[in-house]
Amino acid sequence: MKKVFQRFSLIIILIGLGQQSYAQRWFSSSSLEFGIIVGASHYAGDLTQQYLETRGLKPSVGLITRYNATPALTFRLSGQWGGLEGDDTWYDTEEGENPRNLYFKSVLWDFTGALEINLNQLDQRQESGVIPYVFVGASVFKYNPMAQFIYDPSSPHLSRPGSAYANLQDRDGDWVELQPLSTEGQETTEFNERKRYNLTQVAIPLGLGFKFKLNSKWTLGIEYGARITFTDYLDDVSSSYVEPVRLESAYGPMSAAMADRSPTLHEEGAIRGEEANNDKYGILGLTFTYRIIRSPGCPTF
Known about the structure:
10 strands; single chain
């Protein structure tokens, strides 16, 4: 029994030494990076004709950290602030067509965790080089679509029987949050199946980029990441128009006014958006990170 115990103990020690050697190699080849990411964010949805509408580019800035587990794999976390914007006037409409006259702006907060797959592997000892990469992960984002209310003394809402549109004159020029207005009849008696959308959502980020290793400490990069969302309401536009009387009775005259901003009011059921296609957004960024080289001992700067 004593010999069995001794042999078992020897095996445990050898395994432990092997694991320690592996851990030392792991930590000596891995590293942490901290830095900033600056660039632009944009929206693609019912109020844009093309995926990347340059008129909708808004400044974006944030922080990023990377853990380079191996030369091939990098784990990253980022938090970014930016903006989203869409406008019906960006469409090329035919003469005589009844435009929706819809537009929105929103502040965007994006928090992303992702795995980067480095397509070109550099050793830690290499002072410079280029690393192309792709990334995929999960994002949590927060938005809040708003639009400016412009009082129109010739608005067709004024001719509606019992309309309270005239009471909105003092709010001319106000920026209005659209989600509380339920502009497509969300949670009204007639459209109870339409639920009010959440202002915090999840998305799948898919992207690619290039990292330029300047030296052993600093890395400059450029990347683009698309966010595949699960909502069609980044712009507050998704399905069909609702009778203004219904909206005004449930949510007030501002709801009716912001739901249909066209020169001629649409009939209930008329198409307002493309419900089958969810909205998307993307972030183009420049990254500038400082590398903390890890070793079996304490990190060195």
